[in-house]
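user: Please supply your own:

assistant:
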Amino acid sequence: MVGGVLQIAGLLVGGIGMIGTFAVTGMPQWRVSAFIESNIIVFETIWEGLWMHCIRQANIRMQCKVYDSVLALSPDLQASRGLMCAGSVLSFLAFMVAVIGMKCTWCAQSSWQAKGYIILTAGLLFILSGAVELIPLCWVANTIIRDFYNPVVNVAQKRELGEALYLGWVAAFCLIAAGAIFCCFCRCCEKTRSYGYSAPTHYPTDSQHLHSKTESSYSKSQYV
C-alpha cells in the first residue's frame, strides 16, 4: 500500500518537474530589463531567453526575434542551451522509465528484484536531471546579480531575474524530490524482499513432544 502511494506521488511530482523543465527551456523570460536610475522607460519590457529575445510594449504588443547566431550569446546562455536540453531529455527518459516500472509493478509475474532496479534507475535519472537543470539556472542568476551590482556595466544593459529562473528552480526541486521518492520506494522493496525470504521458525507442539517421548520409551523397552 505504501509502495503504491510512493510510486504515484513520485510519478506526479516527476511529471510536474518534467513539464516545468520543458517550459523553462522555451521561455524567453530568463533575463528581464531592470527599471533603475535613469532607465525609466516602463512601457517597454525586454526579455532575453535561450533561443530568442522579445520586446513587450505597454502590455499590448510583443515582438520576438530568434538569435541570429549562437556566438552572439553570452557564455552562460550558450552553455545553458545544452544543459537545459540535456536536462529535458533526462527528465523525459526518467519519466518513461518510471512509467515502465509502475507497469512492471502491476504485473503479477514480475520479480521484486526487477521492480527495484527499474524504479531505482528512474530515481537516479530524476535526480541527475534536476542537478543538470540547476547548473544553468544558478549560473545565469549569478551572472545577472553580478552585473547588476557592477558599476562598470551600463544601466541600460543591467537585467533582473526573470520568471523562467524561478519556475526552473521549482521544476528542478520537483525532479530531485521525485528521484528521492523513487529511491525510498526501492528501499521499501528491499525490506519487503528480505522479509519475504526469511522463513518462519517452527516450534514443536505438545503432541510432537509426546510422540517423541513415546518413541524413545518404546525403543528402550525393545532393548530390555
About this structure: The two ends are 63 Å apart (CA to CA).
